[in-house]
Amino acid sequence: MKGLVNTPRDIARELARKYSTMTHDELDLLESILVPMKFAKGAMVLNEGEVCKNIYYIDKGLLRQFYYKNDKELTEHLGVENTIVMCIESLFQEEPTHLMVETLESTILYALPKQKLEQVALHNVNIQILYRKILEESLILSQVHADLVRFESAQDRYKKLCKLMPQVVLRAPLVYIASYLQMTPETLSRVRAASLFSDKD
Length: 201
What we know:
Blueprint: H1 8-19, H2 24-33, E1 35-39, E2 44-46, E3 54-60, E4 63-69, E5 72-79, E6 84-85, H3 88-93, E7 100-103, E8 107-113, H4 114-122, H5 125-151, H6 154-164, H7 166-171, H8 174-180, H9 185-200
Helix pairs in contact: 1-2, 1-5, 4-5, 6-9, 8-9
């Protein structure tokens, strides 16, 4: 959490750089709808049964998205700085979510309220593009995760996660990484040990 504190303008610029080119006026518009939010470690950003009304951009920190199945917690997503988190089904159907979002570190988020984002996107092509690209990225990440657990071996799942999300591997608790990769913590420990051993060869 150390380092320079980003302003809403910095976040607007970062979003524009990542998803769409924008004029000063468009950056002003985007900045005007950003809502900064601070959470302590272990705080709930979204609870089961709430309606997700925002797209969240992670400025600092680490989040996990999870749900309960047969009284077990299952991790759906892990997010770090400069990535987006949302409960897409709840966001678009405006229905209570089964997914929960919890901070694993002290976290600073910037919320993009869907209603306001859609209002400004109606009259602005570059903000429409930004909105579309954020949604595309979220859908692609979901597909990548689904394919990972469907088709890859435990070893390959872990190797791909190291490549795609190195900060998550370094910072998230083992139990949540294991759950995200749909393996037991014991299996993940073996896979990590084997991976370290093979890297030394």
